[in-house]
Design brief:
The protein has one domain: Clavaminate synthase-like (Double-stranded beta-helix). It is globular. The protein is built from 5 helices and 11 strands; from the N terminus they run E-E-H-H-E-H-H-E-E-E-E-H-E-E-E-E. By secondary structure, it is α+β, with helices and mostly antiparallel strands. One of its GO terms (molecular function) is metal ion binding. It holds the Pfam family TauD.
Length: 179
């Protein structure tokens, strides 16, 4: 959940991308290749010490956050627990590598997937107004704030909940009804 407290006069929009639509938009051969692969996700990719720790206190807080949130392995294609639909489950901010692939192949494929998933055809752009509240399903979307507002201030309040453990389950093929 995000609530807009103070919005700059220009810019500061947020983009949400549909990981379900992004997966469906991949060629079938690539969809098949991705099924069963896993990727490592690491919070340190989005919050490097050299950028976010400006003093020893901030450094210690960040190191504690890293300790509480170690790298995790998730399927590259996960199943939405409610809809049962497959979706792409990688993000430029957290996914570091695909575990079953050599480093160079993993990097090339991830870069392709990051760019593919954030194409305009898969996203919605929200222009905030003071007081707006956005609620979304983080299991099947990814979001990105646009920092295009210069020195103006943008104040947002965010609340999150713990989610489920991502999993992948082969889709069930519907049975044909007998005539």
């Amino acid at each position: 959940v995000l609530q807009a407290i103070k919005i700059p006069p220009v810019g500061g929009d947020t983009l949400w991308s549909s990981n379900t639509a992004a997966f469906k938009g991949l060629p079938l051969e690539l969809q098949q290749k991705l099924r069963g692969l896993t990727a490592t996700h690491d919070i340190r990719k989005s919050f490097p010490l050299e950028r976010f720790a400006h003093n020893e206190e901030e450094r210690e807080k960040l190191l504690q956050t890293f300790k509480r949130n170690p790298p995790v392995v998730h399927p590259v294609v996960r199943t939405h627990p409610v809809t049962g639909e497959p979706l792409l489950f990688v993000s430029e901010g957290f996914t570091t590598h695909i575990n079953e692939l050599p480093e160079q192949e993993s990097e090339q494929l991830l870069n392709f997937l990051f760019e593919h998933a954030t194409q305009e055809q898969f996203h919605l752009r929200w222009k905030w107004q003071d007081g707006d509240v956005a609620i979304w399903d983080n299991r099947c979307t990814q979001h990105k704030a646009l920092f295009d507002y210069g020195d103006a201030h943008r104040i947002m309040h965010r609340a999150t909940i713990n989610g489920d453990v991502p999993f992948y389950k082969e889709e069930q093929q519907p049975e044909l009804a007998e005539a």
